[in-house]
Amino acid sequence: MASSSSDTPDTSYVKMDTADATLIGKHCEYEYCNQLDFLPFFCQSCKHTFCLDHRSETTHKCANAGAWAERRRQAALAKPSAGEGKRMRDFVQQKPCAARDCKTTVGTSLVPGVHCDRCNRDYCLKHRLGEEHDCKNLVPIGARPGGQVADLGREARSAFAKLKAWGASRKEAATRALPKPKPTSASQRLVAVNSLKKTAKGDAKLAPEKRVYLYVEAEAETTTAKFPKGEFFYSKDWVIGRLLDAAARGLQVENVNNSSANEKDKLRVFHVEGGRVLEFNEKVGASLTSGNTVVLLRGIGPPEDLIQL
């Protein structure tokens, strides 16, 4: 009787069970050998018995070579993976892995990123497990631990107050970017958008019905741009993160969102007409309409922090 394959997982052959006192050995079933072996080997591929010299598939020219290896491979594939049950976001904006000292970029086609529900961060496959990124010692994003409320509150309120004051002035300035006289009716706004379409730049291959025409600016206090403002069109199907990347290239603004974990270095998109900071994963067509103005700001923090405060 043969022992289970788990006893010798690295070979296709196993020693026969010698516990039976009546076992007096078996003859090798390899042609021309027929040697009596008291410690015979059982081939798990062709199910025959062989002596020490002919125990491997190669030496006895196994008629079903590779069958054991294939069964082992299928058994390994059937085992659950280490990350089974972990939720992957439908869309993760390209960013560095949240694990300390890890330089892997997640949110790509090769490294989609795994979201941890406990600490509310995105990690690469290597650091997806809680013990790999020290999850139990991390403060979840969005939480407000008692020892940090004062410092975080003051910093976020200061950024929010600055943003509100700046936004109010920019709303008025944004109307001056439209053709004179100031458009107040639907027909006047249509004329302004038509004028914008003549000067806006973008991918010429993009279908006209998919385009959203926008005024794009960069705030002088938070970033240095080669071109402080411009007129561009983008796809309605894009997310705000992709629009930000394209706008930064168009104005030649330094964009380190995908390489820096420091929020003070990151760019955000402020919607002047809506008076709010847009999320990276919002759809352009759902948040913006042709003729709107968006501004690239740096270091103002994520939208959720501003809303909560």
UniProtKB/TrEMBL annotation:
Say which species the protein is native to: Neoarthrinium moseri
GO cellular component, alphabetical, reads: cytoplasm
- According to the entry, every stretch annotated as the AN1-type domain falls at 22-70, 91-143
Q: What is this protein called?
A: AN1-type domain-containing protein
* Transmembrane stretches, start-end: none
Q: Name one GO molecular function term.
A: zinc ion binding
> Mind listing the UniProt keywords for this protein, alphabetically?
Metal-binding, Zinc, Zinc-finger
Q: Origin, by domain of life?
A: Eukaryota
- PANTHER family recorded: ARSENITE INDUCUBLE RNA ASSOCIATED PROTEIN AIP-1-RELATED (PTHR14677), CDC48-ASSOCIATED UBIQUITIN-LIKE_ZINC FINGER PROTEIN 1 (PTHR14677:SF40)
